[in-house]
Design goal:
single chain, Aminopeptidase, about 35% helix
Length: about 160
């Protein structure tokens, strides 16, 4: 597979969403995330964004297979609207071949047509994700911390 074989298309239908969910589950179960996702959980997560009136989603397709994707929403803020990149995933066996960069470039081009100038993304503290975002002109917001309330029943999940 070469990048010439890849097409970037919008996630526009429930069928697109289902195909993308399978790839999201595979990606989030692999290194560096090592999750325990199944297709139903992945579909539920993507559908949350998809059902938003400001949804933007894209999928990378090679030979009728979704090999990567992204999903999120345009959200209002006090100064400017921004894109909240909720999910970004590439099928494990096709990583480090430029598919992620292709998706990111397509997202940036699309958002430019909508006059959206900021993309917000959360990633875990691993070099894989951080390096990818830095290579695509993202910066770390100095002085910001993600704060999360954990009930006593769920706190053990994050120890």
């Amino acid at each position: 597979m070469t990048l010439d074989d890849i097409q970037i298309k919008p996630i526009a239908t429930l069928d697109d969403l289902k195909k993308s969910a399978q790839t999201l589950a595979d990606a989030y179960n692999a290194e560096p995330c090592f999750g325990d996702w199944n297709d139903e959980e992945a579909l539920r997560r993507l559908k949350f964004s998809f059902d938003s009136p400001s949804f933007v989603g894209m999928m990378a397709i090679s030979q009728d297979m979704v090999v990567g994707g992204l999903a999120g929403n345009i959200e209002p803020d006090y100064a400017i609207d921004y894109f909240n990149l909720r999910d970004f995933f590439v099928f494990p066996e096709t990583r480090r071949n430029g598919i992620g960069t292709m998706l990111m470039d397509a997202l940036k081009a699309h958002l430019k047509t909508l006059e959206i100038k900021e993309i917000m993304a959360l990633t875990s503290k691993n070099d894989f994700g951080i390096n990818f975002y830095k290579e695509n002109d993202f910066g770390v917001i100095v002085g910001m911390r993600k704060m999360t309330y954990l009930s006593p029943e769920t706190a053990f999940l994050f120890e």
